[in-house]
Amino acid sequence: MSQNIEFELTTDYIELCNLLKLVGLADSGGRGKAMVAEGLVKVDGQLETRKTAKIRSGQIILLDNSQIIVK
Predict the structure, then answer these.
(1) Which end of the chain is less packed: N or C, by CB atoms within 10 Å?
(2) What is the per-residue DSSP string for 4-57?
(3) pLDDT confidence tier of residue 39, bands split at 50, 70 and 90
């Protein structure tokens, strides 16, 4: 089952590992970092390996069957 999540950004950016935690795809920031390190996360269709990559409005994050749309 695929899941679409919209995340409303209230600052210039959010770090990728924190975003995964805030939307509930990772139970902690540490797990979010591990997911990125394991090569499970794509940003705008490209594999992202930087755990603290700055995610900005308009970007789309893919993890398994979930898609996070950052507004």
Answers:
(1) N
(2) EEEE---SS-EEHHHHHHHTTSSSSHHHHHHHHHTT-EEETTEE---TT-EE-T
(3) very high
How many residues are there in the chain? 71
Distances (CA, A) of 66 to 12, 19, 34, 42, 69: 23, 13, 17, 11, 10
> Global pTM?
0.93
The pLDDT tens digits of the residues spanning 8-32 come to 999 999 999 999 999 999 999 899 9
Whether the Cβ atoms of residue 41 and residue 20 lie closer than 8 Å to each other:
yes
For strands 60-63 and 66-70, give the pairing. antiparallel
Tell me the CATH number for domain 3-70.
3.10.290.10
